[in-house]
Amino acid sequence: MRKVDVTKLSVSAVDLWMNQWLLLTAGTLEDCNMMTVAWGSIGCMWAKPFAQVVVRPQRYTRKYMDKFESFTLCSFPGKYRKDLQALGTLSGKDCDKLAATGLTLKASKTVSAPSYKEASLILECRIIYHQDMDPAGFVDKAIQKNYPKKDYHRIYFGEILAAFRGE
Q1: For residue 96, what pLDDT band results from cuts at 50, 70 and 90?
Q2: Euclidean distance between CA atoms 11 and 8, whole angstroms
Q3: Which end of the chain, N or C, is more open, meaning fewer C-beta atoms within 10 Å of its C-beta?
Q4: What pLDDT is stored for residue 92 in this prediction?
Q5: What domains appear along the chain, each with residue ranges and CATH number?
Q6: Is the pLDDT assigned to residue 93 strictly greater than 90?
Q7: CA dist 89 to 27, 83, 145, 164, Å?
Q8: Strands, DSSP E only, in the chain?
Q9: pLDDT value of residue 21
């Protein structure tokens, strides 16, 4: 992996989130949980490069996001699509879901949250803000249909401290 200057990071953001997906991981190498995410953003906020992710209250990963100060976001070559599907549907509360995949944890360079040997892009992020989503803010009322159980996401902003791309 080669380090990328985060101020010059360039990704096809909509394609990355909607079509490729990312793997969100929080915790430590010894105690972590991960989930596939397809909603979020990457940009600049408060004069810092950031990645923003959302996690519903019932997701097991949420306890890790709230307990630890960092997370990673990783993208993978297409051959790992089934692994990402599994990590998005299985719960780490019920099983060792990583064992059901071909992915390998590795220590990150700047944060405690681990990343993956097979990743083609790694974003190492330090949580700088979080807030529960307030449905009163939905200007487009059609958004509400994403929440039939009223299980609104918690929004997390992570300052991107380091970024790495596969060779």
Answers
A1: confident
A2: 10
A3: C
A4: 81
A5: 2-165 (2.30.110.10)
A6: no
A7: 19, 10, 20, 27
A8: 2-4, 22-27, 32-37, 40-45, 48-55, 70-75, 105-106, 115-116, 121-132, 154-165
A9: 92
